[in-house]
Amino acid sequence: MSDIRSLALACRDAAPAVAMLDTEAKRSLLRDMASSLGRRTATILEANALDMRAASEKGLQGAMLDRLKLDEGRVADIAQALREVAELSDPVGMVTRREVRPSGIVVERVRIPLGVVAMIYEARPNVTADAAALCLMAGNAVILRGGSEAIHSNRAIAAALHEALESHGLPQAVVTLVEDLRRETMVELLQLTDIVDLAIPRGGEGLIRFVTEHARVPVIKHYKGVCHLYVDRAADPLLALDLLVDGKTSRPGVCNALETLLVHRDAAAEFLPLAAAALKKRRVEMRGDDATRALVPCASQASDDDYAAEFLDLILAVRVVDSLDEAIAHIRRYGSDHTEVIATRDEAAARRFVQSLRSAVVMVNASSRFSDGGQIGLGAEIGISTTRLHAYGPMGAESLTIERFVVHGDGQIRHPESHVG
Amino acid sequence: MSDIRSLALACRDAAPAVAMLDTEAKRSLLRDMASSLGRRTATILEANALDMRAASEKGLQGAMLDRLKLDEGRVADIAQALREVAELSDPVGMVTRREVRPSGIVVERVRIPLGVVAMIYEARPNVTADAAALCLMAGNAVILRGGSEAIHSNRAIAAALHEALESHGLPQAVVTLVEDLRRETMVELLQLTDIVDLAIPRGGEGLIRFVTEHARVPVIKHYKGVCHLYVDRAADPLLALDLLVDGKTSRPGVCNALETLLVHRDAAAEFLPLAAAALKKRRVEMRGDDATRALVPCASQASDDDYAAEFLDLILAVRVVDSLDEAIAHIRRYGSDHTEVIATRDEAAARRFVQSLRSAVVMVNASSRFSDGGQIGLGAEIGISTTRLHAYGPMGAESLTIERFVVHGDGQIRHPESHVG
After folding, report:
1. What pLDDT score was predicted for residue B1?
2. DSSP for B39-91?
3. What PROSITE patterns does the record point to (chains A, B) (predicted)?
4. What is the three-class DSSP state of A317?
5. Residue A219 pLDDT > 70, yes or no?
6. Do B220 and B390 touch, CB atoms closer than 8 A?
7. Average of pLDDT values for B202-213?
8. How far is CA B125 from the centre of its chain?
9. What is the mean predicted confidence (pLDDT) over A253-259?
10. What is the pLDDT of residue A2?
11. What confidence tens digit (pLDDT) does each residue in B313-361 have?
């Protein structure tokens, strides 16, 4: 048996131990994990220094290095995040529906854990703790396959989690860190259909494509966010301006940031100059079509690629549209099914926008930046699914469980002729 | 562009037409499809006769031929099934949760269609109409890839469905029948990740393995049912006997039939002779372990393979266990996550059985034969999922939709410094 298979099997065999934990036991475990991380801060920072040194030697750049870097404050944040997951409501055992059928059987839908979740991720070492915590709160065992650039940090964080598991008498295998980071080993992991119930890739487009291409186990993708703001003819211009500035500039590097602004022709003459002034102050580059450039001379020419781009930067693609339907058609063509926003006072237009688009999150008069597990009411998120299956949009602990059927009867049978007694 | 790609693209492009239909329009469409099937009965039977002739020439056997065969009654049944789907509640647009967040945004979870569903199936021509109807009721477009042995029947049924689509002004592509039945074409279909949202294989183990192996789109498997009845020490023997006879003999060829009986040692001496007598009368062959054979001399020796088998026939594997935990361990080892039953008067034992097993359906004192979309309250089913993702157990129209987030605000932003006006 290959090493990765036996590692994964041990994780699967350990999974019932966490599936059977009650809510208080899980909360206590997560709090102890947080304490363990706190106590081991120095060790974790030493390990992280090794990763940082190797990364600089490899020539990694600013943002990449920043994602990798830990300091005392960041370790404390990771521990705090575990304490917050410990406060979430426990989805396991939740009875979502109950019905007495004509036969007399009582049918309940009850949430159970998925089983074994494989997280495939890149530089950020906090994912090691965050993903483990959410998986455990939902009663799952987890296989963590992080990036090679963070291996020392991930190992130190996993050791802290294992210490807490041990003190709770739980098998360490319920949080399994993969240390063999060869691509072929990842491919093998992604094909263990009898062991892994779900793979969640988090990272750049390259990683997600690789996972989708090679996985035989189910995958929920967390893909790019090409988020749109459509400013309708009936929009309140100042409200729309707030949504634009918040969506584009409050944190341009995240997936729920705005990338494209669509403006109704009737609103463009008033709105676009206002927008250009506000964005210029915040150093946002605008790339527009001809109609935009006629109103905003400083905007450069937008290409087709700009409309499909997730800039993750202070760049905004802009287009003037003739109608709501043209805005919808644009989003259908260029969108990534993540988050779209309409600014309008016209309820019929809002309804049409919502119903015509099948993105995971659609907002009416609210910032795209609310498309986030915490903001939307999930407490914490393991990512934002753009796969239209199982979970769509921000995924919390509940999305790491599945509804099954529990039926209670008092001897009901389907065919009376089966009755013996 | 390949033929199958352009066929699938046409289906995807037509999908919004059905996604936007309101409930009454869908119901009327399905009723007209039923009428169209009725009017075309003679044509459908002629087409079916071609399939039957080819099948006999190929030497197809009894049960296979029976699955393929249509007659006036069966066509009427197919039409009736469409009328029943038309009565289901419409999952599309259903608001499942609503919450006002501290920020003031109102977050709703609203069901939308998946988009494009590909059904991959074998001999039964009724699946062509059944699957199309459930997919349409859930607002999806559907690509139907049936077996070559039923191609004439499937074509005639699809023509009837298309007639109704046309009379409703809907594009025929929302129900797309694949007529190129080469394996490589199916593989290509299963890899159209930008077009197909979900593939559902229904058929034998070979088909399901093939689909799982080659698909890059998400797959929900409808795998075998190795269903267990565990007769606890605290079982009512006559109640347990009813469950056994109903589960094993009322329709042995279906996936929710019982395949294995586990009996607690303390109940075996009373229960097994009763069971043997009742089963003998119904010509069921018993294959047991030594303890079983000591009590039931006519039982043959069970092999390890017998405990893993889905007999789909009048054969029952039997084992005497020392405890509830041994029964649970047996089911974990040999089960297929489909349906398990416990007969007991001991509530604590029932609870432990339910919580320790992660099968899609767990029954307490009720027949495994209730593990069926109609019986369990879904109205109709597109299959019974043994994939622990998205849907688990009987899948109805609701399982062909997904919850997404719709957010209403009045200008909320995340960062106050974004406020411009």
Report:
1. 81
2. HTHHHHHHHHHHHHHHHHHTT--HHHHHHH---HHHHHHHHHHHHHHHTSPP-
3. PROA
4. strand
5. yes
6. yes
7. 89
8. 16
9. 94
10. 86
11. 999 999 999 999 999 999 999 999 999 999 999 999 999 999 999 999 9
Which residues on chain B are in Cβ contact (under 8 Å) with A362? 404-407
The values of phi and psi at residue A356, to 5°, are: -85, -20
Nearest chain B Cα to A211, which residue? B216
The average confidence (pLDDT) of chain B is 95
Partners of B278 on chain A (C-beta within 8 Å) are: 420
CATH of B3-220+390-405, one of 3.30.420.40, 3.40.605.10, 3.40.1620.10, 3.40.50.740: 3.40.605.10
pTM exceeding 0.90:
yes
pLDDT reading at A1 higher than 90: no
pLDDT at B203: 85
- Nearest alpha-carbon partner for A263 in A292, A243, A236, A242: A292
Per-domain residue ranges of chain B: 3-220+390-405, 227-376
ipTM: 0.94
The Cα–Cα gap between B243 and B211 comes to 34
The enclosing H or E element of A206 equals helix A205-214
Q: Once rounded to an integer, what is the mean pLDDT over residues A222-226?
A: 86
Q: Which of A210, A267, A221 is nearest to A244 (CA)?
A: A267
Residues from chain A contacting residue B349 (CB–CB below 8 Å): none
pLDDT of residue A61: 81
In a 13 Å sphere around the CA of B253, the CA atoms on its Cβ side amount to 6
A3-220+390-406 CATH fold: Aldehyde Dehydrogenase; Chain A, domain 1 (3.40.605)
pLDDT tens per residue across span B169-185: 999 999 999 999 999 99
Tell me the angle at which helices A126-137 and A23-39 cross, rounded to the nearest 10 degrees: 160
**Residue B107: C-alpha distances to residues A67, A313, A364, B111, B212 (Å):** 31, 28, 11, 13, 36
Size of interface A-B (CB pairs under 8 A): 246
pLDDT for residue B280: 97
What pLDDT is attached to residue B421? 62
Residue B362 C-alpha from the chain's centroid: 16
Please judge whether A419 and B356 are an interchain contact, meaning their C-beta atoms are less than 8 angstroms apart.
no
| Cα–Cα distance measured from residue B19 to residue B26, given in angstroms and rounded to the nearest whole number | 10
Q: Which tens digits make up the pLDDT trace of A312-323? A: 999 999 999 999
- Residue corresponding to tokens 């990694």: A60
Q: Quick check: B417 pLDDT over 90?
A: no
Contacts of A149 (CB under 8 A, 6+ apart): A51, A54, A55, A58, A60, A64, A68, A122, A123
Whether A189 contacts A145, CB under 8 Å: yes
For residue A421, pLDDT beyond 70: no
Among A150, A178, A177, residue whose Cα is nearest residue A69: A150
Yes or no, beta carbons of B415 and A363 under 8 Å apart? no
Domain A227-376 has CATH 3.40.309.10: yes
C-alpha span between B37 and B40 (Å, rounded) = 5
Task: Map residue B366 onto helix, strand or coil.
Answer: strand
Quick check: B358 and A278 CB within 8 A?
A: no
Q: How far apart are CA A35 and CA A41, in angstroms?
A: 10
DSSP strand pairing (A198-202 vs A116-121): parallel
Residues from chain B contacting residue A359 (CB–CB below 8 Å): 404
